[in-house]
Amino acid sequence: MQVGFNLNTILHNLANDDKKALEDLFNYYYPRLYQFSKSFLKLEDGIDDILQEVFVKIWKNRANIRSSETFSPFIFTMTRNLLLNELRSRLSNQKIKEKILKFSVPDENYSFNKLEYRELKETVDQIVNNLPNKQREVFLLSRYEGLSHKEIAEKLNISTKTVEYHISQSINTIKNKLEQLGLILLLYFYLFL
After folding, report:
1. Is residue 46 located within the same domain as residue 75?
2. Contact partners, residue 3, CB within 8 Å, separation at least 6
3. Which of 64, 104, 120, 130 has CB 3.0 to 4.6 Å from 188, enough for a Cys bridge?
């Protein structure tokens, strides 16, 4: 956390209509959410609009936000849901769908129409849950909470090289498992990990 950043105080002030509290949340979370969004979408276009919507929703729902313990998962889940909506919207556009498929996988091997996001996510979640404890912890902090390698290293009291190693091992494990399960699952890997 940044020096002087007290989430309990900020959320209390936010609930009392303090716009400075929203600004503090924005300054703290925006870089993390941006990195998370970029790794999720694999494109930078539209991320600012999505993140602006996240903070507008936070402001509109400020009276209902109380717990600092659940706020980080809440804001990342909200961002992920908006990213999924954006991705669905983009994939409904045939030209963008073709562009994503072109850079992700060979056209002749895949039919994106058969892709069921929920099933794929459950498969990847199961693979992630079966990673060794430290690998799983580092991977989740990186991909789902959007922390940088340095932030993960500080949080877990390990070196950034160790963080890089765990992320690399996690991605290799996930990729290999997806290859074993069928090539279509690789599309999930390239789009979301």
Report:
1. yes
2. none
3. 120
Q: How is the chain split among helix, strand and coil, in percent rounded to 5? A: 80, 0, 20
Query: How big is the CA angle at 46 (ends 45 and 47), to the nearest 5 degrees?
Result: 100
Q: In this model, does residue 100 exceed pLDDT 60?
A: no
Residues 153 and 86 in one domain: no
What element of type H or E holds 97? helix 94-104
Between CA 179 and CA 75, with CA 148 as vertex, the angle to 5 degrees is 90
Q: What is the pLDDT of residue 20?
A: 92
User: Domain end: 33, 66, 92, which one?
Assistant: 92
DSSP states of 28-45 as a string? HHHHHHHHHHHHHHSS-T
Please calculate the CA angle 152-126-100 and round it to the nearest 5 degrees: 80
Q: How many other β-carbons are positioned within 10 Å of the β-carbon of residue 112?
A: 15
What pLDDT shows up at residue 193?
46
What was the pLDDT predicted at 88? 72
Whole-model pTM over 0.70: no
Residue 99 lies in a domain: no
User: Could you read off the pLDDT of 112-143 as tens digits, one per residue?
Assistant: 434 455 666 777 788 889 999 999 999 888 87
Residue 53: how many other CB atoms lie within 10 Å: 15
**The predicted structure's pLDDT at residue 113:** 37
